[in-house]
């Protein structure tokens, strides 16, 4: 008798995981019992959501307020031409259910704000940041750090992308590395940026992989490190990161006690 609550359909579906020593039925069961919140159903959120659904994460939350536009489709592969004008969360739910009907997909057609962010992140085991503006990055970072929820942060621009894993209390947070006063922190949220769709695919896939590793407790996480991908030169490099003792959210005498954006 197995101690695991995996149906014969699930055993077949996840066979290529189950035969891996690092996963097995025990790991597959852990994934089934896990919950992940994906913030943003766009260029990064698409590969993240697809892989997490394929891999069998039992509960996937997706928050996005936006509707699908034609110019989204070169990178936002959750959505199709026939879905233009619909809400991204609705199209995401349909695509993910078609791939794997066993999962709970919870959608929130909303923006993350100071009054809903903490309540939402606390319902999940880990949060994956797939947003495209700095105000939301700081807001999500602060909510996750304050509530001790791990966060996988990433960004893409042109032919480059970067990823870091934030484990609150154990290493640097987003604000430690990119203080709000820095040049990057001031880039306008509304400014349109170009990005090669496939680069978002690579970076989102890395985010999903780190989340799966975290949930399974396997391997070495991209923790206290920033991984930078340069697609034009086909190169990856890792930069060691250190927490800033004067960080306003995770530092010794943190000055941010209430979230604002
Ligand atoms: Zn910090």
UniProtKB/TrEMBL annotation:
Gene3D superfamilies per record: NAD(P)-binding Rossmann-like Domain
Keyword terms of this UniProt record: ATP-binding, Nucleotide-binding, Nucleotidyltransferase, Transferase
InterPro entries (UniProt xref): ThiF/MoeB/HesA, ThiF_NAD_FAD-bd, Ubiquitin-activating_enz
Superkingdom per UniProt: Bacteria
GO CC, any one term: cytosol
Aminoacyl-tRNA synthetase recorded as keyword: no
Domain THIF-type NAD/FAD binding fold: 14-248
GO molecular function, one term: ubiquitin-like modifier activating enzyme activity
Alphabetical list of PANTHER family matching this protein: ADENYLYLTRANSFERASE AND SULFURTRANSFERASE MOCS3 (PTHR10953:SF102), UBIQUITIN-ACTIVATING ENZYME E1 (PTHR10953)
Name of the protein this chain belongs to: Adenylyltransferase and sulfurtransferase
Natural source organism: Selenihalanaerobacter shriftii
């Amino acid at each position: 008798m197995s101690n695991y609550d995996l149906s014969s359909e699930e055993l077949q579906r996840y066979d290529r995981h189950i035969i891996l020593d690092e996963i097995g039925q025990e790991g597959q069961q852990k994934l089934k019992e896990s919950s992940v919140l994906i913030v943003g159903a766009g260029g990064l959120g698409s590969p993240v959501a697809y892989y997490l659904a394929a891999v069998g994460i039992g509960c996937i939350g997706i928050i996005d307020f936006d509707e699908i536009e034609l110019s989204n489709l070169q990178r936002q592969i959750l959505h199709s031409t026939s879905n233009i004008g619909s809400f991204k969360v609705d199209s995401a739910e349909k695509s993910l259910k078609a791939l794997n009907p066993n999962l709970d997909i919870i959608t929130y057609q909303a923006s993350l704000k100071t009054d809903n962010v903490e309540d939402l992140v606390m319902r999940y085991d880990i949060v994956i940041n797939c947003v495209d503006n700095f105000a939301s990055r700081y807001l999500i970072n602060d909510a996750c750090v304050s509530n001790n929820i791990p966060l996988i942060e990433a960004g893409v621009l042109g032919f480059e992308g970067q990823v870091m894993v934030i484990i609150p209390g154990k290493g640097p947070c987003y604000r430690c590395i990119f203080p709000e006063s820095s040049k990057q922190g001031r880039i306008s949220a509304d400014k349109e940026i170009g990005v090669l769709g496939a680069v978002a695919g690579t970076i989102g896939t890395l985010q999903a992989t780190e989340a799966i590793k975290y949930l399974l407790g396997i391997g070495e996480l991209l923790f206290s490190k920033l991984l930078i991908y340069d697609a034009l030169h086909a190169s990856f490099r890792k930069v060691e990161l250190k927490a800033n003792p004067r960080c306003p959210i995770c530092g010794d005498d943190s000055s941010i006690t209430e979230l604002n954006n």
